[in-house]
Amino acid sequence: MAAIADLSDAPNQWEFSCDLEVDFESEENASIVYAALGVDKELQPDKVKRQMSISDGKLSVHFEAVEARFLRASFSAFVDVLTLASKTIEELGPGMVL
Amino acid sequence: MKKKMIAIGFEGSANKIGIGVVTLDGTILSNPRHTYITPPGQGFLPRETAQHHLQHVLPLVKSALKTAEITPDEIDCICYTKGPGMGAPLQVSAIVVRVLSLLWKKPIVAVNHCVAHIEMGRIVTGADDPVVLYVSGGNTQVIAYSEGRYRIFGETIDIAVGNCLDRFARVLTLSNDPSPGYNIEQLAKKGEKFIDLPYVVKGMDVSFSGILSYIEATAEEKLKNNECTPADLCYSLQETLFAMLVEITERAMAHCDSKDVLIVGGVGCNERLQEMMRIMCSERGGRLFATDDRYCIDNGAMIAYTGLLAFAHGYSTPLEESTFTQRFRTDEVHAIWREKQESGDLSGLPDGGI
């Protein structure tokens, strides 16, 4: 699993943005994480936006916010649940050892 | 015919994370939990509590499966607490449950935390249709079942009774291990002098925040002047709060023409509260049903059992709707499993599963 986070200056609707890409090297695992994390919407849609997509076993997430602190909070919370979802697959998925 | 239906349940709405495995007849196959205990004088905050749950949830799932001696294949549904509770801690269970539902290809059942306390209390004690006093760190409600829903007859208009006790424990810097309420209860046993405190019952409702402010403001002064001991304050606070709860419970009993009372929720394991309620019940010719800390305090089995009741009656939650919510009132839930029982479609719950 590899993650890349960068503050790109591509044209955005809101000033602050950031992208995250995680390579699960598995179509199935990427789609499980995508489906599980897609259920929870951003709590302040007027301040932070999150867009997710999957392709080729990779999960890509694009964040945009009106202020840096909202971007940080949203990104940080997302990484926590992303890690939880990934660990759940690793520990309780096929081949689980009790 | 399939053997007994089995559910796994996830509870993480407050400072406990618990996973339980149960069957439809209420047999608990496993019910491990872990509590986030803060230093004396401090309460638990959403972010830190969620971090605690993140660390413990997966080992608890493994431990629950191992103790129950089951594999994921044998599970019929995966249940979780949808609310009410703190947002960030609730999310931990919700995320794991969604992933497991996809991994193990099992349906999800969202459960109301308050209803789960009631159903757990009913199955453990055998109380059929009692007036329920639900008292915990986050909730204080007097509830009775009527026409498909658990109706709230009375409740706190500000903070929960457990929150009042917990916050007073912080004033005295009592330990939060195993819980602040337990340590107040032990100290209260040594109290000798009753200190007058405000008594705030408003119709069917109660209010605790003013009592807390009053005792917080006067405690320091009284202790400094040796007017009373910390034990006296704990004793007086318990007597006052519990008398209020007994009063509104008795009024609900008169409304519903019911003689039995069931106490559930974390504060429900307080033996002094149980004793006071038992006296009131016996004066009315009724019975008190209560449980100990294994079932009173938040646990995964109560979520699993309540979710399984709903699932056995055809209810499940699509993945896209498996959200969590901080506010989720007891009377929002349609208790389908109780309706069918009453209309005689099922003569009790079947032993062998449906």
TrEMBL record, chain A:
Keywords noted in UniProt: Cytoplasm, Nucleus, tRNA processing
Predominant localisation class: cytoplasm
Segments passing through the bilayer: none
UniProt GO BP: tRNA processing; tRNA threonylcarbamoyladenosine metabolic process
Lineage per the UniProt record: Eukaryota, Viridiplantae, Streptophyta, Embryophyta, Tracheophyta
Species, as recorded: Gossypium darwinii
GO cellular component, one term: EKC/KEOPS complex
Protein name: Transcription factor Pcc1
Cytoplasm as UniProt keyword: yes
rRNA-binding keyword on record: no
Automatic annotation (TrEMBL), chain B:
Residues reported to bind a divalent metal cation: H113, H117, Y134, D298
InterPro entries: ATPase_NBD, Gcp-like_dom, KAE1/TsaD, Kae1_archaea_euk
Residues that hold substrate according to the record: Y134, V135, S136, G137, G138, D166, G181, E185, N270
Protein origin, superkingdom: Eukaryota
Reaction(s) the record says it catalyses: L-threonylcarbamoyladenylate + adenosine(37) in tRNA = N(6)-L-threonylcarbamoyladenosine(37) in tRNA + AMP + H(+)
Domain Gcp-like: start-end pairs: 33-305
Annotated GO MF terms: metal ion binding; tRNA N(6)-L-threonylcarbamoyladenine synthase activity
Keywords: Acyltransferase, Cytoplasm, Metal-binding, Nucleus, Transferase, tRNA processing
Family: Belongs to the KAE1 / TsaD family.
UniProt protein name: Glycoprotease 2
Organism: Gossypium darwinii
